[in-house]
Specification:
alpha+beta, Beta-lactamase, two-stranded antiparallel sheet, 13 helices, 11 strands, about 15% strand
Length: about 375
């Protein structure tokens, strides 16, 4: 296994931990980027990116970031709040009148961002193709009745979060949601981050695969049991309606579409640089960032089948929850993505961290692979 990239001498233990990770027979390819006070101290990649062993992971290899996409979308929305074009506590139906249908008139932007809108899933069973039909999905959401009253309880929204906020961006910013997010968040930082890929960009994408069948995470096991045995339960519908989104990440249609909660494509470098841009104020002014990072919800989440703690569009540190810790300080914030990819920041240490892999793991929150690398990095600081 050849390890590519750079590593500052004082972070050599991180490089050694990355080598150990990539020596596992279960790993295909991965990348790791760590920045401290805006300086890149670790930028490593290794392994294979394609389905065949003769396709090495490159410096510019991209992959599906899954829910690591959510903070990018949330920041674009928060910028509109800062511009006075959106308000956190104004009902969404003020901007999207049909959203008021079926008892949703009191749901606000704040409720959506912190997963207290009561809209984790659609009850109507959908065909796979509907995933790619934006107007159909937003129309269905407008007619869906909430699973709980606005603000009543936390119900994480894996996919609807993206269509709701994307439609809001389309209506208020006057641009397709992918264009709005990328212009507002990716372009100012020069990120290799994309929503809706062209042919050239698709050609750089890693092939996602699962190579280990054992389920080590109890929360993932509970969610899987709902999907397999109770397909009309809220948790099952949230993750598998439309069907099997995780398994469709290699489809060209998935890569070409825009799903602002789950199909951003980037790499470890773009994740770390995004969080560095939040820490140094390039994306949000301090009052907006502070509001985003303030705890808005923390309780057992029936969608995720585990306790979860949220700010606005970001997951907050949970040191006493299984797989809930980023492995650094108490103020760490970011987002985990299905399969093991994660991006986060530790404001106390000035650290921005991105880990991306194409071997799909089975963890609802923090994958132990990334957690191990973060723990070693913490010891180096």
């Amino acid at each position: 296994m050849t390890i590519h990239g750079q590593c500052a001498p004082c972070f050599e233990p991180v490089r050694e931990a990355f080598i150990q990770l990539m020596q596992s027979p279960f790993e295909r390819g991965a990348a790791l980027c760590i920045q401290v006070d805006g300086e890149t101290v670790v930028d490593l990649w290794a392994g294979i990116c394609g389905p065949e062993p003769d396709t090495p992971w490159q410096r510019d290899t991209l992959l599906n970031l899954f829910s690591c996409t959510k903070p990018f979308t949330a920041v674009a929305v928060m910028q509109l709040v800062g511009e006075g074009r959106l308000a956190l506590d104004t009902p969404l139906c003020h901007y999207w009148p049909a959203f008021a249908n079926a008892g949703k008139a009191s749901i606000t932007l704040r409720h959506v961002l912190c997963h207290r809108a009561g809209l984790p899933a659609l009850r109507t069973l959908l065909t796979p193709e509907i995933l790619y039909e934006w107007d159909t999905m937003t129309d269905l959401i407008a007619e869906e009745r909430p699973w709980a009253a606005a603000g009543e309880r936390q119900t994480y929204s894996p996919l609807l979060f993206g269509w709701i906020l994307g439609e809001l961006l389309r209506r208020v910013d006057g641009l397709p949601p992918a264009q709005s997010i990328c212009q507002r968040v990716a372009a100012p930082l020069g990120l290799d981050f994309h929503l809706g890929l062209d042919e050239a960009t698709i050609g750089r994408c890693a092939y996602m695969a699962r190579t280990k069948d054992e389920i080590d995470d109890e929360a993932f096991g509970r969610v899987l049991q709902f999907v397999l045995n109770e397909p009309t339960a809220m948790s099952a519908l949230a993750f598998a309606n439309p069907p099997m989104v995780l398994g469709r990440s290699n489809e060209t249609g998935w890569k070409r579409m825009t799903q602002p909660a789950a199909n951003g494509h980037g790499n470890a470098r773009s994740l770390a640089t995004f969080y560095a841009g939040l820490l140094d104020g390039r994306l949000l002014e301090s009052p907006l960032l502070n509001e985003m990072l303030r705890e808005h919800s923390a309780e057992y989440d029936p969608t995720l089948q585990t306790p979860a703690r949220f700010g606005l569009g970001v997951m907050l540190e949970q040191p006493h929850v299984a797989n809930g810790s980023y492995g650094m300080g108490a103020s760490a914030f970011g987002h985990m993505g299905a399969g093991g990819t994660v991006g986060f920041a530790d404001p106390e240490r000035g650290v921005a961290f991105g880990f991306a892999c194409n071997t799909i793991g089975s963890y609802v929150l923090m994958d132990p692979r990334a957690r191990r690398l973060a723990n070693v990095a913490t010891d180096c600081l």
